[in-house]
Amino acid sequence: MKTKLLYSRLILPALLVLFAACGAKKNLVKTTTSTTVATKTTTGNAPNPELQKLGFLQKVADNAVYANNIVGDMKFNLKVDGRDITAPGSLHMRKNQVIRIQLFIPLLGSEVGRLEFTPDYVLVIDRFHKEYIKADYNQLDFLKDNGLTFYSLQSLFWNQLFMPGTDRLNETSLRKFEANLQPTTATTPISLKQGNLNFVWNADTKSGLIGQTTVGYHSAQHGNSTLTWLYENFMNVGVKRFPAKQTFTFSTTATRQKRTVQVTIDMDEVTTKDGWETNSTVSSKYKKIETKDILAKIMSF
């Protein structure tokens, strides 16, 4: 009983706080398909720096996984306010449709909670209290104010380069990124600034794989927030590679006091299984919690 109560009161609220202020801009990319950038040289076969940059950015964008589904059991770890908690879980993602995180009670294996993002709504299910919330993004002020959408999270979870306000990456949009190409360095930083947001992707200079993404959000009204997303243990998914281990750390001053939350998702394997329902169904026995009520609980956590 105490174990279930601990997981329901700590892990689910902390997850919501983390995702609530990820600091990603509205209307982020829905897909990361891109057009081919031709490789050219200047007179005398000297490299053209701009085309070299575009070629590298193309390589990074082309690393996007082709699969429509990413599924795997995982070890979930949460660090917040000096506490360090680990639980078994699972991750189910279907491209442009859903991101689902499920958490289970160790040894018992029963589900304690579920966090689900779709393009239209956010769903949180608390199995212990038999409660849930389901709201579109406009109903959740803390999501709306921070510009969080499904597609922004998808880009982060799927380890993809993206640009706010576009539905694809082409040569025109790629030219808006900055890339400090130094062939002698192991990683190459790619940066983009838009409004209150600063994006930096650190990509492997040779392979173009993104190893870290940092999003900085600076606002006089909503404070300063930083999200750092690390990618490790890349596994083969078809001809592409997907990071089975992801660690995201979120720090913000938007709350009354500075808060830092770190979550690690370490998948045992990465599969493309498709035999699962896209959308979760909530039992009629569960009580729906008003959005404002649960947000008050979350922000006072």
Automatic annotation (TrEMBL):
The keyword Signal applies. Pfam families: DUF4292 (PF14125). Keywords: Signal. It comes from the Bacteria. Residues 1-20 form the signal peptide. This is DUF4292 domain-containing protein. It comes from Segatella maculosa OT 289. The lineage of its organism: Bacteria, Pseudomonadati, Bacteroidota, Bacteroidia, Bacteroidales.
